Amino acid sequence: MSEKIIVKNVVKIFGSKPKLALNKLKSGLSKEKILQQTGQTIGVNNVSFSVNEGEFFVIMGLSGSGKSTLVRCLNRLTTPTSGQIIIDKEDIVQYDKHQLREFRQKKVGMVFQNFGLFTHRTVLENVEYGLEIRKVDKEKRRNIALQALKSVGLKGWEEKMPNELSGGMQQRVGLARALANDPDILLMDEPFSALDPLIRREMQLELLEIQSKLKKTIIFITHDINEAFRLGDKIVVMKDGEIVQQGTPEEILNHPSDEYIEDFVKSIDRTKVIQAKNIMQKPNALVSITAGVRSAIHEMEENSLSSVFVIGKDRVLKGIVTIDDCVKAVKNKHSSLTELLRHDYYETTEDEYIENLLEDATKSKYPIVVLDNNRKLLGIIVRTTILAGLLPTNGYDSN
Ligand SMILES: Nc1ncnc2c1ncn2[C@@H]1O[C@H](COP(=O)(O)OP(=O)(O)OP(=O)(O)O)[C@@H](O)[C@H]1O
Ligand SMILES: [Mg+2]
């Protein structure tokens, strides 16, 4: 995977004497002390990270931690005081006006928290805006905008004014406007935080779907840890302008680097971020459909089980057999497993959240099976693992 964005030692200082503050920063003075002594505010303090192409990269942190400042550096709405931002091998900090215009029009799109729509333009005209600036001809830009609106589920709303739409819909317009320019990189500054929880959830899922289709590189800001963990391939946590930890959601969840992040992690609803693949196990025992009743009994006895899953070629799940059925079959001199197969177990996919498995887990006699699209058996989830997954620490590593 190639590195799309490399941020190197970026510092952003607000105030009229940034050089003075920068020197103090280099000599190790804190953000607070520098503010006291110089009146300069450290927005972003020596931040470095890289983002791979197509990655969903989340920046998380409390209010004032520097998230917006950092993301504004990435499209040069703000110019860093020092440091480099390499995008597609070019340092955009060095861009002149002309290069910047081109960069903003073609390579990067931004979606804002409060939608940032033009109230006097129709939905369609809002989405066309970027293309209009780029002087794309009328018919072409109309078609692109219609397509973008369709892709966010707003077909039929083109001629409405923004204030005739709900918050969720307005944010879809914001997203469509960014997508219409077909940028490689989408910057999203708390795009869903003004939305109510249900709509927000829906938008998150849609964004993931759009992402999987369009393969954009997304930088997404939030201060909602559940949102961060649900969406992010990688997460950085910021505090006082600095990055305090970066890693995958699993790494951060399992090894919070300090108390600040532990506090964040504590508030997380684990059922909403842990997926089937994180807690599924390899089954202790499996039998092949061709194996016969006696070897199924043997397998169950060996492993002290009262049932065992049966697979065919390529590990495709055929069903489950119970010890009682197998013993009866042997008595009746039946040897094939096929007639004994039961299917009263629950199935899921590896991306399913535990939240949605809880009910099945309590109802099911057997472990829940995790299957891929070809019904290949990837793993099983036993009830105790689901419950363990809900514990605040380390219910996570099993497989
Ligand atoms: N234009 C500005 N002038 C002066 N200081 C600024 C400016 N913009 C941001 N700051 C300061 O920089 C720091 C980081 O602010 P920033 O807006 O990046 O935080 P944030 O993490 O996005 O917060 P929020 O979650 O509230 O949006 C804060 O101390 C803030 O006061
Ligand atoms: Mg902000």
Task: Tell me briefly what this model is.
The protein is an alpha/beta fold.
Explained architecture:
The longest helix has 18 residues, at 197-214. Helix 5 packs across helix 6 (138-151). This protein has 399 residues and is an alpha/beta fold. The protein has helices at residues 18-26, 31-38, 67-74, 97-106, 123-133, 138-151, 167-180, 197-214, 225-231, 249-254, 259-266, 276-279, 293-302, 323-331, 358-363, 383-389, and strands spanning 3-14, 41-52, 56-61, 82-87, 90-91, 108-111, 185-189, 217-222, 234-239, 242-247, 286-288, 307-311, 317-322, 347-348, 368-371, 377-381. It has 2 domains: 48-270, 3-Layer(aba) Sandwich (Rossmann fold), CATH 3.40.50.300; 277-389, CBS-domain (Roll).
